[in-house]
Amino acid sequence: MSGWSATDIPDQHGRTAVVTGANTGIGYVTARELARAGAHVVLACRSELRGTAALERLTSEVPGAEAEFAPLDLGDLASVRAFAEARQDHPLDLLVNNAGVMALPYGRTADGFETQFGVNHLGHFALTGLLLPALLAASAPRVVSVSSGLHALANIDIADLNSEKKYGRWVAYGRSKTANLLFVHELARQARAANASLVVAAAHPGYAATELQARSAQMEGRKGMERFFEVGNRFFGQPAASGALPTLRAATAPDVRPDDFYGPRVAMWRGAPVKSWRASWTVNDAAGERLWAASEQLTGVDFKALGR
């Protein structure tokens, strides 16, 4: 039994989807397969050059695809607000919070947040909140956030969300991926309390061979580490097309329930997408509420559309 695959994606005609970080890796595959199933897909990417190149590639691979590029820098809340404002007049059926950075040297976003926490969590938190009215205007809206099995590296530190006391690149990455899951948990809880039809779920790709692993080594000129990740990708990683399947299942399968978390079947590493293990701290209501309150304060974005 092979399990769930891209051929199981239900018909997406008439639905509009936004995929962040859709220019490469699992984000690109997610956008391409949604378009192949009939969705109108917005490729939301930081780089216009890479975003338009991805759009050209997608439309060549899926003739007749309904797709467009739109600039979005999750490390700049002004960019997030501009992107969302341009999409308030039409219902949005699906938001895939896919873009992310991993294990970068310490840095700050345009708004002064530690880069991994700022891009991976706060940027997507703000984007979801600002797009919420458009999502709730759709008949069966869904939000999917892409986390990682490496969320197990660390719980969040609510007293040091920006890692100002001590910075470890992998700990900070784990915390940002835990934040993704706590965000999904809390948003799903709030949607239920508001009797909203919104389905909020999460996914992780296992070990998918993409550009993400080697990017920090490239930034720092660490050739040995870059080569290490390249070899790891070649021999141990599954293709991006396989890594995207948990996201696609969470985004489209009719049996997905609020706060579900999908990942690869085999040791959370590779294989067909199934419901995945997650650390107990990612389903802690009190932690979700504390992170939510801090995120609202840091971004200035609220979720009033849910009646909060």
Structure overview:
With 308 residues, the protein is α/β, with parallel strands linked by helices. The protein has a single domain, classed as Rossmann fold (3-Layer(aba) Sandwich), CATH 3.40.50. Helix content is 42%, strand content 14%. It has helices at residues 25-36, 48-61, 77-85, 115-136, 169-193, 215-220, 223-236, 240-243, 245-252, 285-299; strands spanning 16-20, 40-45, 66-71, 94-97, 142-146, 199-203, 261-266, 270-275. An 8-stranded mixed beta sheet has the order 3-2-1-4-5-6-7-8, sandwiched between helices. Strand 5, helix 5 and strand 6 form a beta-alpha-beta unit. The longest helix is centred in the middle third of the chain and has 25 residues, at 169-193. The chain is globular and about 50 Å long. It starts with 15 loop residues before the first strand and ends in a 9-residue tail after the last helix. The relative contact order is 0.15. Residues 222-226 and 228-236 have low confidence and may be disordered. It comes from Streptomyces endophyticus. InterPro entries: NAD(P)-bd_dom_sf, SDR_fam. This is Oxidoreductase. Keywords: Oxidoreductase.
